[in-house]
Amino acid sequence: MSQVLAIMAGSVWKILVQVGDQVDAGQDVVILESMKMEIPIAVDFPGTVKEVKVSEGDFVNEGDVMVEFE
Amino acid sequence: MFTINLHDVINMQYTSGFPKGIMFIHTNLVNNAANITSYMNFDLCGSYVHTCQKIEQRQRRQRMFTKVLVANRGEIAVRIMRTCKSLGISTIGVYSEADAEAPHVKMADEAYLIGGPRVAESYVNIDKILEVARLSKVEAIHPGYGLLSENAEFARRCEQEGLIFIGPSSEVISRMGSKIESRKTMEEIGVPVVPGITYPLVDAEEAVQVADRIGYPVMLKASAGGGGIGMQIVRSADEIRKAFGGNQKRATDFFGDGAMYVEKYVDNPRHIEIQILADGFGNTVYLWERECSVQRRHQKVVEEAPSSFLDEVTRIKMGEASVKAAKSIGYRNAGTIEFLVDADKNFYFLEMNTRLQVEHPVTEEITGLDLVAEQLRIAAGDSLNIIQSDVKLDGHAIEVRIYAEDPKTFFPSPGTITKLVLPEGPGIRHELAVSDKSIVTPFYDPMIAKLVIKGKDRNEAINRLQFALAHYQVQGIKTNIPLLQEVAAHSAFRSGDTTTNFVEKYLSRINGQ
């Protein structure tokens, strides 16, 4: 199972996908906000969103799972 | 409200000598025994040697504050407090829950917890800060840079409460804070501006029409924007349509103002800014320029003074234009006028920063002035004690910003600093507020330190910069030191070929989005 992890500590600024969405490799799925910067997080594989484990505004640590794919 | 009284004593020892006309100040904290453990971190950070201009002991100090609130955090709060202490002014600090152990809290004579870690809960919470100001009976508030420093509402509230806001009037802040308003003002005065419009755009289609008229590439900009937010270079009508909504949304989210405009993008420009000082009696001087062309994500990384690009005639022209602009708007205190300068040395007004800048130390190094001391004197109602012909231009200074970020992708890198070793040597000055074991949180700006280098000329300054960077060690988090080393070692930097696309042009980076 593929996952998208937080690449740094910060808060979830925007979630760009919903359960069931088909995503392409390179597509942004979450935008993190840390140190006054917004960092879009893209998937490097195509897939279908199985579960979104965070909500907008949540604080995440580096390595936390944010989105899971089928 | 949780209040702590720290009663720090700062011992300033002076040894004159190197470099010529500059004194070394060794700052040592004398620890309060009861708080010895909590002080240990800061002692490591506070015991560095920094070169600084001599502290003037003014004979005729007619009016000076006795107590000032520093409404900021990090290195700038520490730097402001240092000058306050040298002038005999008591300092009041404020801090968030994330900053309880921060150096600025320990350095303040008194510090007050004002809220949660997010800036909206604490450092930009106007009501809370004014409450502390009333409670601690300060006469003035120094806003530093960022946070509330260019917040006209905050300045207005200070004015209403009879507190002195160390900066210009709220009216000037609000006029210069709007990119559209400030452009209009400069056009009226006759200061050159980049071709573009001075009214907010209705929508993307109007932006396309304007861009078609002035020619691509154009810069799409948020009126209230800053730090590169809400700003994008666009090269076609399609790109405008794609970029408009997102940038407008961001500007609304960040600044509460979605007004957008568009202007001609000057290709390969240099970013050169003029520092001015103005008192309340109509005296205004310029303290030469700073070149801040080396940037990443539209954020400055390397700043130097003087610029290796400007000739004497252009330097004076820009200085005089800045003084004229400052006078015509009734500017008071320290301020900076930023210009874009093209390859033919045409300069265009970019914006005015109505506050102390991050990179002010390079100006201090070449002029021998303490800008914070000047700010305090002006705010206290004193007149400038220098005229234009007194302003020195001695040697060359370079500042590099040390960011907690990945040097290749520019992604932020918060975390715990496990080891910090600072280089020492001739011409090396440190401005920082982190130490061994400091936690760099994700809540604030990624800049953790500034390294300021002085040399008798640019070559010597670059040599010293290379030495200092090679001996600068930060472990536990990623920093941009490898990027800074690449810049310092690059032949294009040495030869002064510094335009705002320096990083993209000369350094192999992964595009950090």
TrEMBL record, chain A:
Gene3D superfamilies: 2.40.50.100. The keyword rRNA-binding does not apply. It comes from the Bacteria. Pfam families: Biotin_lipoyl. Keywords: Biotin. The keyword Mitochondrion does not apply. InterPro entries: Biotin_Carboxyl_Carrier/Decarb, Biotin_lipoyl, Single_hybrid_motif. PROSITE patterns: BIOTINYL_LIPOYL. CDD domains: biotinyl_domain. Residues 1-70 form the Lipoyl-binding domain. PANTHER family: OXALOACETATE DECARBOXYLASE ALPHA CHAIN. This is Acetyl-CoA carboxylase biotin carboxyl carrier protein subunit. It comes from Domibacillus mangrovi.
